[in-house]
Amino acid sequence: CSRQTVLKKYFGSK
Amino acid sequence: MFEARLPQGQILKKLIEAVRELVTDANFECKPSGLSLQAMDSSHVSLVSLLMRADGFDPYQCDRNRTLGINLRTLASVLKCSSNDDIITIRAEDDGDSAILIFESPSSDRLSEFDLKLVDIDNEQLVIPDTQYDAVVRMPSAEFQRIVRDMQILGDSVTIACSKDGVKFSANGEIGSGSVRLKQSSAVDSEDDAVTVDLQQAVSLTFALRYLSLFSKAAPLSPTVTLSFSKDVPLLVEFRIADMGHLRFYLAPKIDE
C-alpha cells in the first residue's frame, strides 16, 4: 500500500 | 493598465484546457516581465506553475504589478467563444474589478469582448527550490499521453524507472500487470520524436496516474515533454510554450507505508 504525500512536505511556503 | 495581446491566441486556449480540471480558481500574477500563475490542486498533492514572458506577447503593457483572480472554468467557457486563429487580448484597468478578454479575427473584421468578474483567491504560494535531478527524460508528449492512458487500464499508480538504457513505466492491479519500456533513441528524423534520458543516477518512483493523466492534457501545447526525477522529490513534468515560457506540473511521489 502506498500513500500520496502533500507537496508542502517538499516545498516551503512563501 | 495591464494589456497583453497574444497573436497565437490558441496557446491560451490550450493552456486553460490543460489546467482547468486540476485547479478551479487561480491568481494570474501580471508583472512587467510577464504573466505567471502558481496553484495547487485541492488535495495539495500537485502544483501548476505557468510562465509566459512579456516578449511572447505583442504588445505587452504592464505599468504596475497586478493580481487577477480568475475562475478557470469560467475562463475556459469564455475561451470556447474564440476561434483557434483569433488573436486574444487580456486587459485589466487599474481600478477595475474585472478582466476583459478580446477576441480578434485574423482579418480584424470580427471583434468580441467579454468582461469577467475577478474573484478573491486565498492562494498559498510555495517556494520551489532549485533541484539537481537524478534523471531527466525527454519524450514526445503524445507518447507520454498514450502511456499514461494505457497504464490506467491496470491500476491507479505507475512506477517509472529510469536507467541508462531508457525509461520503464509499469503498473499492476487486480486484473494483472503491464509495462512499457522506451529505449533511448539512437537516430531519429526529428528531434521532437526522440526519447532521451539524461541520467545522473538510476531512479525509480511511483506516482498517481490520475494526476499524470490530468497533466497529459497539456500535450497539445508542445510536441515534447520533459520529466525530471529525483529520489524523494516531487516529479517535474514540463511542457514548453513556444518560445515564450513553460507550463510545469509538480507531483508528490507515492510513499510505501
Quick take:
The complex is a heterodimer of chains A (14) and B (257). With 14 residues, chain A is an all-beta fold.
Describe this structure in words.
The complex is a heterodimer of chains A (14) and B (257). Chain A is mostly beta strands and 14 residues long. Chain A is 0% helix and 36% strand. Chain B is built from four helices and 20 strands. In chain B, strands 6-2-3-4-19-18-17-11-15 form a nine-stranded antiparallel beta sheet. A five-stranded antiparallel beta sheet of chain B has the order 5-1-7-8-9, covered by helices on one side. In chain B, strands 14-13-12-16 form a four-stranded antiparallel beta sheet. Chain B has helices at residues 10-19, 72-79, 141-151, 209-215, and strands at 2-6, 25-31, 34-40, 46-53, 60-62, 66-71, 87-92, 98-104, 111-117, 126-127, 135-140, 157-163, 166-173, 176-183, 196-199, 203-208, 224-229, 235-241, 245-251, 254-256. Chain B starts with a strand and ends with a strand. With 257 residues, chain B is mostly beta strands. Chain B is elongated and about 55 Å long. Chain A binds chain B through residues 1-14, and chain B through 40, 43-47, 124-129, 157, 206, 208, 233-234, 250, 252-257. Strand 2 (12-13) of chain A pairs antiparallel with strand 10 (126-127) of chain B.
Features:
heterodimer; A: 14 residues; mainly beta; 36% strand; rod-shaped; B: 257 residues; nine-stranded antiparallel sheet; 14% helix; elongated
If strands are numbered along the chain, what order do they take across the biggest sheet of chain B?
A: 6-2-3-4-19-18-17-11-15
* Broad structural category of chain A: mainly beta
Q: Helix count of chain B? A: 4
Which consecutive residue ranges of chain B, at least 5 long each, have pLDDT under 50? none
Measured by DSSP, the beta-strand proportion of chain B falls in over 45%
Greatest contact between two chains: A-B, 14 and 24 residues
